[in-house]
From TrEMBL:
Species: Paludibacterium paludis
Ranges for domain DUF1835: 7-40
Name of this protein: DUF1835 domain-containing protein
Residue span(s) of domain DUF3658: 87-173
Pfam families noted in UniProt: DUF1835 (PF08874), DUF3658 (PF12395)
Amino acid sequence: MLRLYVENQRHLLAALAEPEPIVVWVGNNAHDKLMLAMVARVASPATPLSVVDITGQVAFQYMGQFAVGMCPPDALLPLSPAAFSGTGRARLASQWDNWKTHGEGWRETAVDGGVVEYPSDHLDTRLLARLAESGPQPVLRLVGDVMGRYPGMVPDTFLFWRLDTLRSNGQVVFIPGTRDGRKSINVELAG
């Protein structure tokens, strides 16, 4: 999973180094806002930047938050990009610099639509509480359960990373197992 993430980031940075026009598809969630700010900062100022904001333009949302990944391609076909202004781009680039150097780690969409920040371990208590309540279980089930109960959008990769951090800190234990005849990883509270 981590290898795929690193590979995706490498491809993204390589694409941003080219002076070809870039179209960024975003919703109103913190993750998309962060990605747009990163692109505004990392892409060459000579690179034309356009944005397609799907917020309110598609029927697919989760608790008022829109994300491109939730949409079937047909829902996106009628949407078209709009050029992104130089002042808006500069503002986002500055915001990215601030988030990158002073950010606390976990960011999500606030009620007012802004981005709110928490420490990286913000969701650890939810993972541990759910594990204490439900007992040992497959990692996939625990992550899916916390994602489904959280009032915002949480990427599974973030929760997998936090579980691995909890493992490294000795708070949980990973146990090899099988599920439906396939190898799986189960997790339980340590000690």
